[in-house]
UniProtKB/TrEMBL annotation:
A biological process from GO: nucleotide catabolic process
UniProt cross-references to Pfam families, sorted A to Z: Hydrolase (PF00702)
GO terms, molecular function: nucleotidase activity
Name recorded for this polypeptide: Pyrimidine 5'-nucleotidase
Gene3D superfamilies for this protein: 1.10.150.450, HAD superfamily/HAD-like
Organism: Neobodo designis
Amino acid sequence: NSFCTLLCKMGKLVFDLDNTLYSFNETGFSGDMRERIHKWFEQSLKLSPEAAVALSNQYYKEYGLSARGLKIHHGEADLEGYLKFVHDLDLTKLTACPQLRVMLESAAAAGWEMWVMTNGTRKHADDVLVALGVADLFGSRVYDCRDQWAASAPGEVHNKPEQSAYEGFAKHSKAQPGETMVMIEDSMMNLHAPAALGWVPVWISYGQDLPADAEPKSRVIKTILELPLALEGLTP
């Protein structure tokens, strides 16, 4: 068992979903989602193709999620329609990964409580977890974009990478004071706030060099299957 129960006692493993539990390179989902985002902006906001790309990218950079920009600046927009359209992906490109399941089963056996925290939708997360063959290991422990927005202060809209989103998750998941919290992400910008809260940040690099905005406390692994290496030495 690659998870040592003496070193890795109970805590929470909080996984990002897309490009974390599976690789975008293996599915092409990154390009598929970008195309659908740009198409929706173009058609629904009546923008030129160039303006649609520019605005959706601007919202992503400013808010960590293009949908949040829509919610803030385009209250009349069909946000539910947007979320459904963007996540309408061909999940047959995803296949169950036996090694992933074995690793997650080992983590659960070692006492880790596993969650998905995603800026996507719960339905998308559930569908991906089913396709990967690990849905039963997470159950209902999915915290999605709507959960993050609902936990925001009145009149505000927060999601990853903002610190309040992680604070909302901690409350929702009933995290105990001092409990070990591990955030596993492919996006470095989503690791700064958890690190500031005392969580353990784990960055999946896929072999890339550390970016200029690297979180200094990050534990770096190449793929999700190397997660046991990042958890070595952790205590409750």
